[in-house]
Structure formats: C-alpha cells, structure tokens
C-alpha cells in the first residue's frame, strides 16, 4: 500500500505501508542505533515524533514482552528502508508489523531513508506527515506546515502517568507513598521518580541497584514528594521542549538541596532550567547508541545511548553554582552537570541504555553513593 | 596525552607469505601502521619476507628487511637496528608467535626493546588454551568445556562430564583427520579408539559441541586510558562448525536483539580488559545458542585480523591505522575520524547498509581433497559487497566471487535439479564450497524453511531472505521481458538481480536488459561508506552502488582514470596484482590524475580509501563496471594490472566504447590467440615449442602424436595453469579431455611440445611504444613443466651465458615493439640445448612484477602507469637496464597441509598461495633465506632421505656427494641406495613401506630425518612416495620434489656452513644501484 512522506519544506518521499492504512503528523527524526527498535518505539520521549531508523533492515528479531520500555508505542509513525516480516529470535513473540498495528501506529518501508536522513542532517529537523490516505502533495505539505511542532509545547502531560505507582516484580503496580514499591535488596533506598515519560529500564536499574521506587506524575508538588521522605529524587527522561513543560521547574527549585537529585535527559534539562539556565534546539538532535561522551572528572570516554532534540546551553548556567561534568565529543555539547553546593547531578544521555551500550551505568552507583552520604 | 616521545624507533613485524588464513589483510594493516607511525615522526623498521606487499615498498618504512620472519632473523634486525620498541600485533599469528619466541630468547631484554600494544603475558593469556579458559571463568563468561585424554577410559569419564554431543579431535593430525562428532557413549568409544590410534601423540581432545549454534564476532579497540569501543559486529551465516574464514558472514549482526547484542558487547569489553590488551584492536568470537540465547566465548585474538580488515572496509573505520597510533600513546579521543574530519575516533561506527562476505575456495585445484568445510580454514580469498538490503548485498557478493555466477541462482549455472532428494539433503547438511547452490535448489523445490533450517542450521532469517530472492526470480520468469515494467524492474534491481540474471530468466541478452534499464532510467546510485549512517558529513569518496533515489557520487572535473582491481584472491591471482593496482593509483596521484579504484576484495590495500582518489567497492563484472563508467565518464581505464579479472573485461569494455589506456585489447588477443600468436612469432623469426590448437578428442590425439609425447595440454584463456597437464601418452590425452570437457569447451584446447629438462625463464619488461626496458630476468630453479608461479626463481640468471641473456633481451624487445605494448609485458622463455623458445607472452603486469621491483629498486608498475598515461621512459629517467650485483631468490609457499589426501608434487598447474624473497650478496645465502622464509627450516645436519626416479639418479649424485661432504648421513631405499653406493657415495639402506618395518615412515615419525628428497613420475605414482611426502608435511620436515630444487638447497646449506647470515635492509641493496 503506497504511503507518502511529506516534509514542511516540500520534500516528498514515496514508500509502502507495512501496517495497513494510517496517517501521522510529527517531527521527523532519525536514530542511528543498529538494534533496539522495540525499545525505541516504546520510549515515551518520541511522543510527537516520526522516527526513521538509519539501519535499513528492521523487524529481523521481532518483538518480545521483556524489551518494553513503557506500556505503549510512542512515535507517531515508524519509517524504515526494508521491513523484515520473518523474525528470527528465540524470544520473539510477535512481528513488528503486528506490534505496530496493535497500537495503531503506521509503519512505512521501501524508500530512500538515507536520503531522508541526509536531508534532515543538512536542513535540520522538520515537521512532516506520513499518509496512506492523502496522496495530494500540496495538501500534505500544507498540513505538515500547519502542525504546531514541538517548540514550546508541553509534551510531558501527554505521557506522564495519571496515577502514582510503585515498581515491583519488573512492572508498575498502582499505589502511593512506596506502598507498592519493592526491592529485593536489604535496606533499600527510597527514591521518588518523576515521570516525565519514564523508561522502564530506569526503574529496573534503580530497583536492581537497591532502591524502592515510587513513580509520581510530573505535576506532583514538592511538598507531596518531601512528605514521602525519600532518600533521593529521580527526574526521568521525557519528550519535547523542556521550556514548554509547565510547573515542574518550580517544583525542582523547591526540592534542590533538600534531597539528592539525579536527572536523565529531560530530567537533566529541567534541572538545568531550575539552575537558571536555558535550553536550545539542536539542528537535528542526537539519537542513537554510539555517541561519545567524555566524563571530565575522570577523562574517560563512554559510548552512550542518546535521544534528545533539545539541549541546555552551558553558557547559560551560573558557573559558580553548576559544574559541567560531561561533554559530547562529536559536537562538544553539554552532556552532564552537577551542582557545586547541592547534591544534584544529571546527564543528557541515557545511562539506563535500552537500547544502547551499558558504559554509563556507573551513574546509578553515583546516585546511590550520594544517597548514602 | 599525545604520543610518546621516549621512543623513536619502532620495529614492525609483518606476516610473511600469503597462506590460507593469512592473506593481503596483513599487508593492508601493516602498510597502514607503517604510514601512521611515519606520519607521527617515528623511525620505522620493518621485517617481512613477502616482496609482493605494499608495506615492503622501500619508500614506506625507513629500513625494510625482506628477511625470514624467524626469531633468529628478528634478533639480527634488532641487534643491527636497536629499535626502542617492537609492534607485533599487525602481522597476524606469524608476528605474534615470532614475538613470543624473540622475547623468550631474551633478545628484547638484552637490547631493551619494549613490546607495544600487547606484552608477552597478554599474548600467552589470549593464545594459551588453559590460561584463556581460566581468564574467562574469572569474569564469569562461559567457554565450551573440553578435556584432553590419552586413554579410552579417561575419554568415557570426560564424555559423561561434558555431555553429548561431543567433538572428538585427535591431536596432531593434519586437517582434522579422524575427528568427528559423537552423539552418545558408543560413538564416543568408536571415535576415540580410532582417534587415539591416528594421533601421533596418542591423544584426543574432547569438546562440548556447539554445532548449530550461531556464531558472531566483535571487533574491539582499546586505548591506554581504558576507553573501549566496538567497531563492528559480524554474524556468520554458517553456524558453528565452519571456520569463520570459510563462513559467509554479514555485518552488522542481524538476528540479535539489542539486549543480546549489548550482553555480547559487555563480554567483549570485559575480555579485552581481562586479557590485558593494552592498546589496539582485538577480535572476539562468540557462539549463541539459538534455542535460549546462551552465550559462549570461542576465542579472542589480541591483534588485528582478517576480520578487522573486513570490519574496516565494512565501516570505514581504519582499525590498523588507529591501532598503530594507540600503540604509541594516543587515546581514541585524541584521534580524528578521517572520514567525517570533525568527529573523533572515540565512537562506534553506525552503518546504514548491509555487508556480505563470501569466501572463495579453490577445491578445483586439489581434486583429491574433500570439498567439506570444517573448523580448519580452506578458502584462499574472499569478496565483500555492500547493499542497502541483505538480498542486494548477497547477490552482489555472489557475482563478485568471479566464479562465473551472476547472483544467487537465476543464471543457469551450477544447476542441481538432477539431484535426488537424499543427495540434496546431504549437500545441505554437510557444509561445502557449493552449499549455497544446494540451498538454492532446495528452495526451488519448495523445501520449507524449517526443514532447510534443520539440515543447514543456517538461521531462518537468512533462509527467508534467500527465499525472497527466489520468489522474485519466479516472478521474473513468469512475467518475461514484456513484463519488466519500470516498477517491477526497479524492484528486481533493488533485490540485487544482475542484468545477466534478468536476461537469463527472460530469455534475452544482458544488453537488452541494459538498454531497457537505460530507457526507463533505472540506474544505480552511489552511496557513501561514512562510519556514521549519514549523521555527519563525509569527505572520503568511498562508494557502493544500490538502486535508490539519491545519488551521492560527486562528479569531478579534471583528468581521471579507472583502475580495475583483481577481485577475490585465488591461486594464481592474488596480492601481486593488488600491488600493481595500488602502484597505479600512487603513480596517477604523482602526476595529478584522479584515480578511481574498483575492486571487491576487502583484504587489500587497493580497497583502502586512502589508496585512490575514489573507491568503488563493487563487483568486477561488465555491468557493474560500465555503470561506474557511465557515472564517472573517465578518460580511460587500466586493465593490465589486476590479473585475469580486468583482462577478461577488456574486450567487452572496449566494445562498449571505453578507452583502454596502455596496451590495446587487440595486442592481448594477439598474444592469447594461438593462431595469431604463431603468426606473430613467425614474423619475428622466434621459435616456440611445436604446438597445435584443437577442439575435439580426435583432433587432440592426432596433434599430440604429430608433435610427439610428452606434450603439455591446457584450455586457453586461463590463469594459474588451471587444468594444465603434462601428458605422456594417448590415455593421458583421453583423461584430460574427459576432465575438461565436463566443464566447457567454449575455449579451445592448447597442445604444446613439452620441453623436458629445459630451463625456464621469466622476463618482465616495460615499453613505452618506442623503447623497451627489461625490468628483470628470472631464471627458474625447477625445470620447465612446473608452473612458473610455483617454481623457485633467481634474479639475475645464474647459469645463462651472456649471449643467451642478450638473445632473451632482444627477443623481448622485439615482441614488445611488435605487439605495441604500452606498459608492462611478461614473457616466459625456455632454454633447451641452448635454443631459446617462447612459451608465453602476456602483455600485462605479471605475478613477478613486485618481486622484480623489490629486487632492483625499479618501481615497474608505477613507471608503467605513467607510460600508459603518455610519458616516455626517457622522460621518466628509465633508460638503462639495472644490473644488480646481489641475488634475489623467490620461493613459493603451498597450502598442502590444509588439504587431506593431496599430493605435494609440483606440476604445470599452479598450487602455491604465496611467495617469499631471499635477498643477499651471496647466492647460496639468498637461497637459504628464501627457504627459511618459506618453511622456516633449512636442514643443517642429520639424515637426508633420498628416493628418486630412475631418470633423476645421475642428477642426484652431485647432491648426494655434497651432502656427505657436509656431514649428512644419507638414507636411501633399495634402488637409489644401490646406485649411490655403486657411485661411491656412502648411504644407509632403509626399507620401503612395503618392505616391512622399521621402514622410512618410522624414521620420519621418530624425528630422525631432517630432509627428504623425493622425485616421482607425473601424477601420484607409487603409494610409497605419496605417503612419505604426506608424512613430511605432517612432521614439518623439509622436502624437495625436484633435483634442481635439491641442488639449490644444498648450495644454501653449504654457504650457511661457511658464512654467518647477515641482514640488510632492501634499501641497502637498491640504493647502491
């Protein structure tokens, strides 16, 4: 079934749907990971985006119940060079096409994805539309242009949990105030995790490392959090523009210095804003599992998983209060920082991987050490 | 922290001759390393016995020792050069093993030489079976359990511990003889009973079988700050049980989820840390149970490898170059990525295409060997291809193999439709060089993927992709030519179908399809290999073709020339031709002409993106080359450097209107076509052995009888003496015609008078159309009848008179001028009874060009390129022929130990995989060096076993006398002993095998024989001599199968006794000229 991809600048690509009819509007982005499409699809940070995989052969190992990073698929549509309908992996329980169809997400294959990626790389991330229904170029381009885009939008409210839950037995269990949060370890730390679009692997790792994790909606107040008397506060990843997210910056400001804080991705950006910094949009973002990050405190280079379109401007941060701890070696952008006075640190990338390398898992230990102090 | 300044001079060890499992990839890595270290200002000393390499070019390293890679010679080089450090991780297993021995000799300590990249403890930990096992246990990784047992009782106990199935491997047998898989105790007892008997050490190894598990490799790099990155993952299409070098492989891994891949990545990083490789690249092999994902570590190589070369070409990340820089103290984040320029080497490449590697085997050269693939590697080369899908890449790789195939079936070749189901099933179950054809046939017969999986253990994902290709093939056949509408034709091209396949399936011609494609504007586009999946801009024009929307090839102005490479290595066409292609690129750069390389061999220097201005990693077929020509519109194309591959394309390309630079295709035809060649020689008044060209058996018999036996017979248009035989009677002619008739008689059969006991001579010359300069005259040690690629040869000639040499030069010049050679020419002469015969003229680069260039210091291929571009030899300053005062000896290296049952006798069909050079002021020492480099042994004392055919008895006498004088004891069997004793040469009688024990084999097994001289008539005559030659192979005893070869080695032994071996860099020999 023919599908058209139209970009706001008038560029058109023609492919085929491998999931039946559908239509989606969003920001078109690309991810350079060679594997991990299931984790990418279930990462809430992709809300509002249409994801293109640069690796051309997708669907090879199917989909399985263990590699979910949330309960649903978040990108608006999924674009690949060649969909492979015959998965081969002992864990596979479903084909990718069935999985996408189950969540009503359009999958398109059979076009020059590299040309699309190169276009975005040179022209920057842009709005786009994918459709099997509308074959009229002008109409598609017009609708892509009309879509408001991500800048200034609060995408977090679309994906944050409605009700608090605890993490237990590798799954969310509704409940408040650590009532349902479990850890197999003795004397676990109590961590409140803000859900801006949290990935399950953050919860899995915190729990594995010896934390009981209470997940709370993004709008939860500082008082509510402090009333639970946690040992630490975790700020999760999430979609969109940090400056579009309402209320959270003030919450974080109130929590700063009260409890150890660890932020990842959007959580890191929110901390940056709380420190008084500002965010900017990268030309086309960092999305993949091969981004080199240097830990300035050790000089060590780690290969990291990343997924962000916005970034904190390091020059906007108060130098006396905030120390840059990590930078991206490809473009020297800010990848990590810590507060000089308060127990708070954060990284732009994804130490919880899934998908991606495990090099940065040590950051969870740093968080534990901070809580131990 | 930048590079180290406490070291100034670094010794790099190369890998020596091309052998199975060590090929051009180590020239690629070595050349990169030499360049990288020179670039950093280090003084680089190199030792490598292989003259056909780019790394041994005199302008590359500061001092280049073309000397045997033995501990003794490395010690001599160290003693002379006093390097501060030695880098042993770029020359394959050869360099690692040599480094360990040099260290154990105490040389490194004595001269205070530091080992870079990996110290001795690290190498031993990675290479030692038990040490490695313990290290893996320490970091909680699993390895397949194994036990070494010496008795049946111990085997039974071990079997119960390991669990079945168990692989049984008798220790110390060649090619895994007597091994097998035991599925129960009964089978274990049977296999161990025979295995213990077969093993020379009465020892068998039992290993838990991972047959059928999926196999993977990761290429890992580490710097001194403990930063570790993975450059590439590789998945084997063939499951465990087939050597990786013999497996079809794919990059990146296709059937691993991220979770499984990252587990493997973690393991690889833990391994490189635990083993302690300080800096550089390593390769780690894993097996994964397809049922439950269980991960096992198979092995790790603490060095660059064939896989790292493949990974470099597959990703664009130059592993060896970076490894060299890490070895001198740089860290990954201090080095830039050449391709993107802005980003650093500290990252992991991402790729947005699929890479397929297919090995190239030459079982046809060894008909006695079983075409069965096991854990011992047998392929001699490989080809790689890149596509946007697996299907496209795989079909491209199939046609890149140059085995006459144009894709995965659909070309009417190697059809197996006559097979009965049982034979088909066996062909699927037992891995062989032809298994892919069996898979094709099975799918054509609609065998289910599950059944196919059960038989082959090839992952269903690959099988499904194969099936998709066949589905498309069926569609093409059903639609026919009229049904090739634009959308469908494009779809077929996207699935990798060649015009040849489309033509075959629609009953049309390749040109019909090509014209249709052009009319419909279905043309390939070229995409970049950029290390980053287009995330960053790339500056290196390294391209592959695909059928898609955007073309990234940048049209350049200015003069440009395409160089056609040699494709996958095979016996008869290997590194020597790649050397010439690389020199062509260098020469073009020197004169400001853009060079465009087309090649499909991932091992080579020619496919290094640094070598040429543009690189197209593409199959060398008419279609693929013409497509690039359409894209690039070059000013000309060089076909005379890449061996037979580009030569075969010369005529079709010329017909398509492409300008061939240098010697014109007609001259090639004039030299190849028998009738025309005869007229050509008659015109020049030159003599050739009486000969004829025939098409049928009757004609052949008539011709042979007219000429008189013995005769040499061979099909025309072949390289490496494929199917060439010396025939002594009518029966021989009949056998030959039967043997080749099966394949094809599209080319006629050539019959030549065989010049018995003639001296054979190779001449390489260069001609600019006006003047011809002889580059070198090589005199073969072995008499005519042994393929020139297999014989030992000496530069300059050592037995020819000045008059004869002058006559050879005159004849060569006359032929070059008459043919209109512009560029290189090779002539093979034979001298018999002081008469000069022309055997062959090849108006192209020959296998000996790099050897001659190294020996004389004249870069023939480079000069020839410039001549082809219009320069005169006078302008290039080459006006006189170089007379060298030293000796250069070329010795060949053979793969016999890889193949069971194969006889080691030499003949007119080429069998060698590689060559070495011995260079010295003294001829005997040069011979000895060549021998040492080729086999690492020159007998110095002890017992020599001599057994020669009657014809050779008189000739062996001086050899035997000399040996006695050198204090050797001679052992001989009845006839030879009687002859020697009668002639007054003392010798001891020893039983033939048939005469009862103790016989010669017992002596060999007891280690009492240090050299075997054994000549035999024609093909495998007596069982005895065959068994002796095989035993020599197993026990690594030097053996010689010609009297002339024996005489040469005796000369070497004599000189070794009287002289201290000295080493000189090749620059010493050539600078004095």
Compact description:
The complex is a heterodimer of chains A (373) and B (1073). With 373 residues, chain A is of the alpha/beta class.
Question: What does this protein look like?
Answer:
The complex is a heterodimer of chains A (373) and B (1073). Chain A is α/β, with parallel strands linked by helices. Helices cover 21% and strands 32% of the residues of chain A. Chain A is built from ten helices and 20 strands. Chain A has helices at residues 37-41, 96-102, 113-123, 137-146, 156-159, 200-208, 222-227, 248-255, 266-274, 362-372, and strands at residues 2-7, 12-17, 23-31, 49-53, 57-58, 77-79, 82-83, 106-109, 126-131, 165-168, 171-174, 189-195, 211-217, 232-235, 261-264, 279-295, 301-312, 322-328, 334-339, 344-347. In chain A, strand 19 (334-339) and strand 20 form a beta hairpin. The longest helix of chain A has 11 residues, at 113-123. The model of chain A has no long low-confidence stretch (mean pLDDT 97). Chain B is an alpha/beta fold and 1073 residues long. The two termini of chain B are 44 Å apart. The model of chain B has no long low-confidence stretch (mean pLDDT 93). Chains A and B meet through helix 3 and strand 16 of A and strand 11, helix 9 and helix 16 of B.
């Amino acid at each position: 079934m023919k599908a058209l991809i139209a970009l706001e600048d008038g560029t058109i690509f023609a492919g085929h749907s491998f999931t039946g009819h559908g239509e989606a509007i969003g920001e078109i982005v690309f991810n350079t990971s060679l594997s991990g499409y299931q984790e990418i699809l279930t990462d809430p940070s992709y809300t509002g985006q249409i994801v293109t995989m640069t690796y051309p052969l997708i669907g090879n190992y199917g989909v399985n119940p263990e590699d979910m990073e949330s309960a649903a698929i978040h990108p608006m549509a999924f674009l690949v060079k060649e969909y492979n309908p015959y998965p081969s992996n002992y864990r596979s329980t479903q084909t990718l096409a069935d999985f996408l169809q189950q969540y009503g997400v359009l999958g398109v294959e059979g076009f020059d994805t590299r040309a699309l990626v190169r276009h975005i790389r040179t022209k920057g991330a842009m709005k786009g539309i994918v459709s099997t229904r509308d074959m009229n170029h002008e109409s598609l381009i017009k609708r892509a242009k009309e879509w408001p885009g991500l800048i200034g939008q609060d995408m977090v409210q679309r994906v944050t949990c409605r009700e608090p839950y605890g993490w237990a037995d590798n799954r969310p269990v509704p409940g408040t105030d650590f009532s349902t949060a479990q850890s197999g370890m003795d004397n676990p730390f109590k961590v409140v995790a803000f859900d801006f679009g949290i990935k399950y692997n953050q919860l899995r790792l915190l729990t594995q490392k010896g934390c009981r994790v209470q997940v709370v909606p993004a709008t939860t107040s500082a008082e509510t959090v402090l009333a639970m008397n946690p040992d630490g506060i975790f700020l999760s990843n999430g979609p969109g523009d940090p400056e579009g997210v309402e209320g959270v910056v003030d919450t974080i400001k109130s929590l700063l210095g009260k409890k150890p804080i660890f932020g990842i991705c959007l959580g890191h950006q929110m901390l940056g804003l709380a420190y008084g910094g500002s965010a900017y949009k990268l030309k086309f973002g960092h999305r993949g599992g091969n981004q080199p990050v240097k830990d300035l405190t050790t000089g060590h280079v780690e290969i990291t998983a990343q997924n962000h379109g916005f970034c904190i401007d390091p020059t906007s941060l108060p130098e006396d209060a905030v120390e840059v701890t990590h930078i991206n070696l490809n473009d020297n952008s800010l990848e990590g920082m810590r507060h000089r006075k308060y127990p708070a640190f954060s990284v732009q990338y994804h130490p919880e991987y899934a998908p991606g390398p495990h090099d940065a898992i040590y950051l969870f230990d740093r968080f534990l050490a901070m809580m131990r102090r | 922290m930048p590079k180290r300044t406490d070291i100034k001079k670094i010794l790099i060890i190369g890998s020596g001759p091309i052998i199975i499992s060590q090929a051009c990839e180590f020239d690629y890595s070595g050349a990169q390393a030499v360049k990288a270290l020179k670039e950093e200002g280090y003084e680089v000393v190199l030792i490598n016995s292989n003259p056909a390499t780019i790394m041994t070019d005199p302008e590359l390293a500061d001092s280049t020792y073309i000397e045997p890679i033995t501990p003794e010679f490395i010690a001599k080089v160290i003693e002379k050069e006093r390097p501060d450090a030695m880098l042993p991780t770029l020359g394959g297993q050869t360099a690692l093993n040599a480094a360990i021995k040099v260290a154990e000799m105490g040389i490194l300590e004595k001269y205070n030489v530091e080992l870079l990249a990996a110290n001795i403890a690290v190498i031993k930990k990675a290479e030692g079976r038990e040490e490695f096992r313990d290290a893996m246990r320490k970091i909680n990784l699993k390895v397949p359990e194994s036990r070494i047992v010496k008795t049946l009782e111990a085997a039974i106990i071990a079997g119960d511990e390991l669990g079945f199935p168990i692989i049984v491997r008798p220790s110390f047998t060649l090619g895994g003889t007597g091994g097998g898989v035991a599925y129960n105790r009964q089978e274990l007892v049977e296999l161990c009973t025979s295995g213990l008997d077969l093993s020379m050490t009465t020892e068998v190894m039992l290993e838990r079988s991972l047959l059928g598990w999926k196999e993977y490799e990761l290429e890992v790099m580490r710097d001194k700050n403990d930063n570790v990155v993975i450059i590439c993952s590789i998945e084997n299409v063939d499951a465990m049980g087939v050597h990786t070098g013999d497996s079809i492989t794919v990059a990146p891994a296709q059937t691993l989820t991220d979770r499984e891949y990252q587990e493997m990545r973690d393991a690889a990083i833990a391994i490189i840390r635990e083993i302690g490789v300080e800096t550089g690249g390593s390769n780690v092999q894993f097996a994964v149970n397809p049922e439950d994902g269980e991960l096992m570590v198979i092995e790790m190589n603490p060095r660059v490898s064939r896989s790292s070369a493949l990974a470099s070409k597959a990703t664009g990340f130059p592993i060896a170059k970076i490894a060299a820089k890490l070895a001198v103290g740089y860290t990954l984040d201090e080095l830039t990525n050449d391709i993107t320029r802005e980003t650093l080497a500290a990252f992991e490449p991402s790729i947005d295409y699929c890479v397929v590697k297919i090995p190239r085997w030459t079982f046809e050269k060894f008909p006695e060997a079983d075409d069965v693939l096991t854990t011992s590697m047998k392929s001699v080369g490989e080809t790689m291809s890149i596509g946007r899908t697996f299907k496209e890449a795989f079909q491209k790789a199939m046609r890149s193999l140059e085995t006459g195939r144009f894709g995965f079936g659909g070309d009417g070749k190697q059809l197996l439709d006559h097979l009965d189901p049982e034979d088909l099933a066996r062909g699927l179950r037992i891995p062989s060089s032809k298994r892919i054809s069996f898979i094709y046939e099975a799918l054509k017969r609609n065998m289910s993927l599950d059944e196919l999986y059960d038989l082959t253990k090839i992952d269903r994902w690959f099988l499904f992709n194969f099936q998709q290709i066949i589905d498309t093939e069926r569609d093409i056949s059903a639609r026919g030519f009229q049904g090739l509408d634009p959308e469908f034709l494009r779809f077929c091209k996207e699935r990798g179908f060649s015009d040849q396949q489309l033509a075959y399936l629609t009953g049309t011609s390749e040109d019909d399809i090509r014209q249709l494609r052009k009319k419909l504007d279905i043309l390939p586009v070229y995409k970049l290999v950029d290390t980053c999946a287009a995330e960053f801009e790339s500056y290196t024009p390294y391209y592959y073709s695909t059928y898609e929307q955007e073309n990234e090839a940048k049209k350049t102005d200015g003069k440009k020339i395409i160089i056609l490479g040699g494709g996958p290595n095979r016996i008869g066409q290997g590194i020597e031709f790649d050397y010439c292609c690389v020199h062509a690129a260098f020469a073009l750069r020197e004169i400001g002409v853009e060079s465009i390389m087309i090649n499909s061999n991932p091992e080579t220097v020619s496919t290094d993106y640094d070598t040429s201005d543009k690189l197209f990693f593409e199959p060398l077929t008419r279609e693929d080359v013409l497509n690039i020509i359409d894209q690039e519109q070059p000013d000309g194309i060089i076909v005379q450097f890449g061996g037979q591959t580009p030569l075969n394309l010369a005529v079709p390309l010329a017909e398509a209107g492409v300008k061939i630079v240098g010697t014109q295709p007609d001259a090639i035809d004039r030299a190849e076509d028998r009738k025309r060649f005869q007229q050509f020689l008659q015109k020049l008044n030159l003599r050739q052995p009486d000969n004829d060209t025939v098409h049928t058996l009757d004609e052949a018999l008539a011709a042979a009888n007219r000429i008189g036996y013995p005769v040499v017979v061979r099909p025309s248009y072949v390289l490496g003496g494929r199917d060439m035989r010396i025939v002594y009677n009518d029966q021989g002619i009949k056998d030959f015609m039967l043997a080749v008739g099966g394949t094809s008689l599209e080319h006629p059969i050539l019959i030549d008078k065989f010049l018995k006991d003639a001296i054979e001579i190779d001449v390489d010359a260069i001609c600019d159309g006006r003047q011809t300069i002889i580059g070198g005259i090589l005199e073969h040690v072995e008499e005519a009848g042994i393929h020139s690629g297999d014989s030992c040869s000496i530069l300059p000639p050592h037995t020819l008179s000045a008059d004869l040499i002058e006559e050879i030069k005159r004849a060569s010049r006359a032929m070059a001028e008459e043919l209109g050679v512009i560029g290189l020419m090779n002539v093979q002469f034979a001298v018999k009874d002081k008469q000069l015969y022309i055997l062959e003229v090849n108006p192209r680069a020959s296998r000996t060009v790099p050897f001659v260039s190294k020996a004389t210091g004249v870069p023939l291929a480079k000069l020839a390129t410039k001549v082809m571009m219009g320069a005169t030899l006078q302008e290039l300053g080459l006006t006189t022929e170089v007379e060298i005062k030293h000796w250069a000896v070329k010795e060949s290296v053979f793969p016999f130990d890889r193949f069971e049952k194969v006889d080691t006798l030499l003949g007119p069909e080429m069998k060698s995989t590689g060559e070495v050079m011995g260079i010295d002021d003294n001829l005997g020492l040069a011979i000895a060096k060549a021998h040492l480099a080729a086999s690492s042994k020159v007998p110095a004392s002890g017992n020599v076993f001599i057994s020669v055919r009657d014809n050779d008895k008189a000739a062996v006498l001086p050899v035997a006398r000399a040996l006695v004088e050198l204090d050797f004891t001679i052992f001989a069997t009845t006839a030879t002993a009687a002859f020697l004793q009668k002639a007054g040469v003392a010798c001891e009688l020893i039983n033939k095998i048939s005469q009862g024990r103790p016989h010669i084999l017992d002596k060999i097994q007891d280690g009492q024989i240090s050299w075997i001289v054994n000549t035999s008539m024609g093909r495998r005559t007596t069982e005895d001599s065959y068994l002796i030659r095989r035993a020599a192979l197993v026990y690594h005893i030097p053996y010689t199968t010609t009297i002339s070869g024996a005489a040469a080695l005796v000369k070497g032994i004599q000189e070794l006794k009287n002289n201290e071996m000295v080493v000189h860099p090749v620059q010493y020999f050539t600078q004095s000229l």
